[in-house]
Write a structure and sequence with these properties.
736 residues; 23 helices; Rossmann fold; Barwin-like endoglucanases; Dimethylsulfoxide Reductase, domain 2; alpha/beta
């Protein structure tokens, strides 16, 4: 298959009507955002409480409308720079989480074998005593480092502080090694800075945008989608590289249906064209970079013709799209992606994306990557941690991931199987992350859990991981609690507050309270000297010279605007060893991985099998929202995308139920088939986060199929330990 322009793609049979429907002007309303910003939010009830969202990591500002003690609706806060008065579908659906009838309501202690999901309700005192006693036993017998924390969500900050006070550095989030880690390492190596969260992308001013397997519009990052929408409406050229004709591809000038696993070949060919035709930003490269001559020699033979034989993208399309990027420089941007753990060479692929952006001169430039700034909030004057914890055992024995700059969740999981790492992890504290679906290789995860002395879970819903816990501590939702002040680096500095909208329901408690009560029982009172999270937050806000009253009233305080582009007077600086943008990386070379990214061909699917790809839907955040009745009214389950020609050859029709069987014989749950021209014939695709089997999820249980179940093997990135998961293959069968 060659590269298609959008005009050419519309000629393809059954896809034409659907694609044409997507071909009009791109608006945020079409993408699912909740309409125009409002100057006067009005009140659907007695009062409106500003806060910020937790349905994904973006943390948009919200206005929660309350009537008679119940939340009636949630809208975007016009004063908040990340929401600008709009919310994505998930943000508006927060009420569905608050009033989910399946919520965890009381603390519970396991009464049967792990995984059988049989528990006894107990008092908070009993549950906390049980947890603290188990943690004290582990510390006494194995040392504090034998306890690990897995965390996902803003409320996890209290438990990170607790575990550091306890004496362990084994604190990990699946969002690193199972999602964004290769990108962060690659950009840090190249520019001396990561792209952060939210990402510092100046899409609003871009004149050319390339998406490499990044599904904007389905991966619904609010501010980013708003900026992306405006860029397209203003005529920005969009290049979408994806085996599947995604939502974003429907807005693209060029859709490049690349062979899965060959993205690095395309990136190298783009570099070749930019250099050979002099389309790179010569002044920027000469002034700010090192290693260009090495790169020029490295890509001299990486011609479009060379890339065509690997990617199936026609040479003339590679040249045309490279020229589009080079012609728009520096307001041209190759999107770094978010979920980038694909094939095991992911740091090198992300390095190629970073190098391309350096050639375009886009880092620190308008329409490329702005340099974010943050408000300075003083930290709380805690007692210094008494312990000097051991290094995490998150790499196998006699192995190391030299460039990892965070603890690997998958590594800690493996270290929980006795004898596999430098020392054994014996206990888990799991906050807000469903490890059964978040970590690959579910058989390894279950083996690790069964080997533990103790596992406690803090969550809002009875996710699969809850069924494996020894003790369950039900947390209040983000609408019922106060958390840390949010002051991330952004194009304009700001600080936002999360404040309770309603009182906690049932017998749930806010995370700060759970962490503090555990600390008191663990003899760590000095590390939690404040009485509650409000006192803690007020101390930091007052220390920064900000007004707590204003923050309560508006939900956010915005700092003065500062330069975020080099052309506006921001002094360029790069926190790399050379002090410049490092096209060639000595650190990568010394690690034995290669100072410049190189292409290695992917493994081919076995006969009769297809590469398994997965992604997201705009109304869902992984598995967090699949039990949400409000959001599931839009999409109740997932379906399997399969090329229409292949479906015909297999005797399958759209809408009938099928199952996937992977290379290790693992079968998926039945799900409906979507036979479509909008995907290559060598792969299949489904949305992540379905196929729940937790007893307590009365709504989500049994809906759709779990891609996690099929990810039984990974290819580990040698640079930072990320688990490449797009290395699994499936055959498709009619369901019995």
């Amino acid at each position: 298959m060659g590269g298609f322009t959008r005009r050419q793609f519309l000629k393809i049979g059954g896809a034409a009507a659907g694609a044409a429907a997507l071909g009009g002007g791109l608006t945020t309303r079409w993408f699912g955002l909740d309409g125009d910003p409002v100057d006067d939010p009005g009140t659907d009830g007695d009062r409106v409480v500003p806060s910020f969202c937790e349905l994904c990591f973006w943390k948009c500002g919200i206005l929660a409308h309350v009537k008679d003690g119940r939340v009636t609706k949630i809208t975007g806060n016009p004063a908040h720079p990340l929401s600008r008065g709009r919310l994505c579908p998930r943000g508006t659906g927060g009420i569905g989480l608050l009033y989910d009838p399946d919520r965890l309501k009381k603390p519970m202690i396991r009464r049967e074998k792990r995984g059988q999901q049989e528990f006894q309700e107990v008092s908070w005192e009993a549950a906390l005593d049980y947890t603290a006693e188990a943690m004290l036993r582990i510390r006494e017998k194995h040392g504090p480092e034998a306890m690990a924390l897995y965390s996902h969500g803003y409320g996890g900050s209290w438990f990170k502080h607790l575990l550091k006070a306890y004496g362990s550095a084994n604190i990990a989030a699946p969002s690193y090694a199972q999602c964004r880690g290769p990108r962060e390492v690659a950009f840090q190596l190249t520019f001396g800075s990561t792209v952060g969260s939210p990402e510092n992308l100046d899409l609003d001013h871009s004149r050319a945008i390339a998406l490499i397997g990044s599904h904007l519009g389905e991966n619904m990052h609010n501010t980013q989608v708003q900026d992306f929408s405006r860029a397209i409406d203003r005529g920005a050229s969009l290049i979408v590289v994806d085996p599947r004709y995604s939502t974003a591809a429907g807005k693209a000038r060029w859709w490049l249906p690349i062979k899965p696993g060959t993205d690095l070949a395309l990136l190298l060919a783009w570099m070749h064209v930019l250099i050979e035709e002099g389309l790179y930003d010569r002044d920027y490269v000469e002034k700010y970079t090192v290693g260009f001559d090495r790169l020029k020699a490295h890509v001299a033979d990486k011609t479009p013709e060379w890339a065509f034989t690997r990617t199936t993208i026609r040479p003339e399309v590679i040249v045309e799209t490279a020229r589009a990027l080079g012609g728009a420089r520096p307001a041209a941007l190759v999107h770094p992606g978010r979920h980038v753990v694909w094939y095991g060479d992911d740091t090198q692929r992300s390095r190629a994306i970073a190098i391309l952006n350096a050639l375009l001169g886009s880092w620190g430039r308008k329409g490329g990557f702005f340099i974010p700034q943050a408000l300075s909030l003083p930290s709380y004057p805690y007692t210094k941690y008494a312990y000097h914890p051991k290094a995490p055992p998150d790499a196998p024995k006699n192995s190391v991931y030299p460039l990892a700059d965070e603890v690997l969740a998958s590594g800690l999981c493996m270290a929980s199987i006795p004898g596999t790492a430098a020392y054994d992890v014996k206990g888990w504290l799991v906050y807000g992350t469903n490890l059964i679906q978040a970590l690959p290789q579910p058989d390894v995860v279950q083996k690790a859990i069964q080997a533990l002395d103790f596992i406690a879970v803090v969550d809002v819903l009875p996710m699969e991981i809850v069924g494996w816990a020894d003790v369950v501590l039900p947390e209040a939702t983000y609408l019922e609690r106060c958390d840390e002040i949010d002051a991330p680096p952004w194009r304009e500095p700001f600080a936002a507050v999360r404040q309770p909208v309603v009182e906690p329901m049932y017998d749930s408690k806010p995370g700060w309270w759970i962490a503090r009560e555990l600390a008191l029982r663990l003899g760590l009172k000095d590390y939690f000297p404040w009485k509650d999270s409000v006192e803690y937050a007020m101390h930091r806000v007052h220390g920064a010279g900000l007004s707590c009253d204003e923050m309560r009233r508006t939900g956010v305080i915005r700092g003065p605007r500062v330069p975020v582009y080099f052309e506006d007077g921001l002094e360029p600086s790069f926190a790399t060893p050379s002090g410049k943008i490092e096209i060639w990386s000595q650190r990568m070379e010394e690690a034995g991985i290669g100072g410049l990214p190189d292409y290695t061909p992917p493994e081919e699917p076995p006969p009769g099998m297809f590469r398994l790809l997965f992604g997201r839907a705009p109304m869902h955040t992984f598995g967090r929202t699949s039990n949400n009745r409000f959001l599931a009214s839009v999409e109740r389950g997932n379906e399997l995308w399969l090329n229409a020609r292949i479906a015909t050859e297999l005797g399958l029709r759209s809408g009938e139920m099928v199952v996937c069987v992977n290379q290790d014989g693992v079968r998926s749950e039945p799900l409906p088939l979507k036979a479509t021209e909008r995907i290559r014939p060598d792969c299949v695709y489904l949305v992540h986060g379905y196929g729940h089997d937790a007893k307590g999820l009365s709504f989500a249980r049994g809906r759709g199929a779990s891609d996690s179940r099929l990810v039984t093997r990974v290819r580990v990135d040698p640079a930072m330990g990320g688990t490449g998961m797009n290395v699994n293959f499936v055959r498709v069968e009619r369901a019995a």
